[in-house]
Predict the structure.
Amino acid sequence: MGERRCPAWLEGGRGRGHDRAMSPFLIVALAIIAFAASFHLHWALGGRLGYSVSLPQRPDGEPVMAHRIGWWRWAAGGVALGLVLLGALALAVGGHLASPLPSGIAKAALILTGAAFVLRAIIPTPWTGFFKRIRSTRWAHYDTRLYSPLFLLLGAALIAISLGY
């Protein structure tokens, strides 16, 4: 019997993925991504848990994007897929998964995505972020205590991963 090897797609750019420990930043990023992707997949498949606070709300409780509810489940599925791809990109940049992208492009994509998440948490808009103007809705409560902190933490973790931490 020959030596057992992991599949080629699991071999990271800096050696086999299972030979290296994951950084704390990568673990945090993957945990947040898995949490968010599971909720989005749940909604895409018709689940209702958390649905009432899944979209920003006007002060009267009406979703800001009520006119788009018809295709909301498809969008949730797209977000779930995007999050899974983001997790794969983070694993690739962290050296735990091979990537077809050149290293510089993968790192730049991770930095830009991380920056977008950080900015989502801190740039004031009427409905989102730590400095939002509308604070009286159920959505706003969840955004302040859960969504914005997770966006900030995920963004910072992605930037740290791309910088080699």
Notes: Residues 22-49+65-162 form one domain.
